[in-house]
Design brief:
With 131 residues, this protein is mainly alpha-helical. The protein has one domain (25-124). The chain has 5 helices and 4 strands. The protein has helices at 3-21, 30-41, 48-57, 64-70, 78-83, and strands at residues 84-86, 91-92, 99-100, 122-124. The protein has a two-stranded antiparallel sheet with strand order 1-4. The protein has a two-stranded antiparallel ribbon with strand order 2-3. Helix 2 (30-41) crosses helix 3. It is globular. This is DUF2695 domain-containing protein.
Amino acid sequence: MTVDDGVRALEIELAELAADLTAVGWHECVLCYVNRMVVAHGCDGTLRWLRRWRQSSAPRATRLERRAGQVGAYCDCELFLNGWDVTVDIVRDESTGDEYWPDTVTGCRGVPAGVTQPCSLWERLNGATRW
């Protein structure tokens, strides 16, 4: 095995690892996926994770990015700043009275294959039901 062969093998292994780490879960909705990816890998100022979900789960939804822009989301994190909020209850600390979000929001409630609407874990900030 030459150095070039070793480098190629390592590149293949890293590509496979990256694909595994960023794979869309079974029936995972768009917002649960994007939230999971932004928490794990951050937002790069684009709709990178939204596009990745669409390519994997709903390739015919070619206007998904445009619909995100209509709710003021021009990057992945803006989906949650301008468009959607989680429906999980806020936790109250009984001793101090402080309110805070749970440490993690996990467990997508699932959507059928090809559906671009988020699961019931998410609601629009302005009260609209669809985007």
